[in-house]
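dumping this here before i forget
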Amino acid sequence: MRIVFPLFDGFTALDLVGPYEILRMLPGAEIVLAGERAGQAVPDGVNGLSLVATHARAEVRAADVLLVPGGPGARRDVDDPALLEWITAVHATTRWTASVCTGALLLGAAGLLTGKAATTHWSAVRELESYGATYTPERVVTHPGDRLIIGAGVSAGIDLALTLAAQLTSPAHAQAYQLGLEYDPRPPYDAGSLAKAPAEAKALLGVVDG
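structure:
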């Protein structure tokens, strides 16, 4: 089970690490971090954490699962034809291709979401729809016939990975992985979406209602 995560400067750490913690438990899982070159330390979007590429992207031509994280770098790399061509080529080999957060913009820019319902971080809706997708405010959106699964912002990657694990193994396996991580979220505030966040919290992020 080859699970490939592309690494690019400016990824969001939890977009990748959250799903990794689930998918690494799949039977026979081989985790591949694909960067521009093997051994490269790739910084996240705030330059506070780096992950080291296990493989050069050019040598990764196939995957059972391709999972594209988001982050500031994803918004920039929608204009990187080499990355988009690589995503398209690897997608042709996968059992599932997935994105978390603004990773959906890379799938969109690669032409994989045209005419499809999709989700992303709430701040990237306009960009997502510019690629012909229709935004839906769901945590996880699946298109089994197209082998696509798309997760909303950052923390939704864990929900996506559990959904994906159930598809690749069984619901019981996914539940076991959830239990192993003690993933039982009970946030102290109910402010995790635009629909629920209070005006003061939105203002701190520069969000204007309407």
